[in-house]
Amino acid sequence: MDHRVFQMNCWFEGHVQGVGFRYQTVGVAKGFEVTGNVRNLVDGRVHLYAEGEQAEVLAFQSEVASELKSYIRETEIKTDNGTRACQSFRIE
Q: Fewer CB near the terminus (10 Å): N or C of the chain?
């Protein structure tokens, strides 16, 4: 049985720390069938990792970007397929 899933790493740049960005992202994740995590980076960006069905992961990322667009200046996304690494979605 193949346990590979779609994986997305997304980096948000802008005024994304100290504004509840990670907590809002977790709230958005509850509406999607995704697992992963969101964390602040020392360079001021927020890193979002999500995995699951491709359409679900991309819809989740799109919803995060839409809901938090006033804080985001730039977004970088890299995708791949791999073995599931997370059991839930959480803040790290």
A: N
